[in-house]
Design goal:
With 325 residues, this protein is α/β, with parallel strands linked by helices. A 7-stranded parallel beta sheet has the order 8-7-6-9-10-11-12.
Length: 325
Amino acid sequence: MRIVFHGENAASFSPGFAELVGPQARVFVLPDVLISESDRACYAAADVLIGIRYDSSLPRPEALSLFHVPGAGFDKVDLEALPAAAVVCNCFGHGPAIAEYVMSALLARHVPLADADARLRRGDWAWWASAPQRIHGEMAGKTIGLVGFGHIGQAIAKRAKAFDLRVHVANRSRVTDQSLVDRWFALDDIDTFWGSADFIVVSVPLTAQTEGIVGAAAFAAMRRTAVVINVGRGPAIDERALYDALATQRIAGAVIDTWYRYPAPDQSTTLPSELPFHTLPNVVMTPHMSGWTDGTILGRQRAMADNVLRRFAAQECENVISTSR
């Protein structure tokens, strides 16, 4: 069994993978850009491919049995271009990590630990609990609005409840778990949803239906004190509409982890948008890092190894995106 990890992202899951699937596996790790003939031949001979993209520019792996995305998003995988016999799967396990990121981002807006520390090291007691002008905010009693209620949304809701936040959800299917959700909005009522929350968290995958789901009309309907967090896919929020809402202070701020432009394999640096988000003081920018934790790596390794074993034992795989044709 030839298991090929393609690209830097996928390679992160390769250490120890052979031990999880057994002695019948031979593991190969290839770079993002396949230049040498030997690398291209190795890719083409794979029984299992683990990677975040596939298109016609890559060698065709005729004997491929399983293509596994080492994450949730598969928008860079051309499903129709893969051999008909291949099953395509993805995996999750990133919900807890991303939920911690979201809560950290919200806490940072309310509890100025870093600023208080920096000031006190200079002898400045700016946040000393002794005067009204030094009061900082708290999250309890506020409302978080979740666009999407899959693995990530549910993990965020659980933690939000622990902080005594009200939870509103806009989702295609009805949410009935009243222990986690205070109010559910159907997508045809999403215009009402935008103004109902202090924080809006976008965690939907990128599809034809979700692209641009947060647009100019959504920002116009939000509270001026709203903070938007994107941990789904960049284009789920309209790029220009987001920039304009921040630049004009139509909303209070944003925390953006998923973007519109990413470095090519041969690039060391690049800005994440053609628009100058980096010049705005009311946005926190992070490089698609929210789910990238030791817990995520280990959980996804195990999930992918389990699917490899299932596939070669002629058993049904978990988290199937596309079955063999």
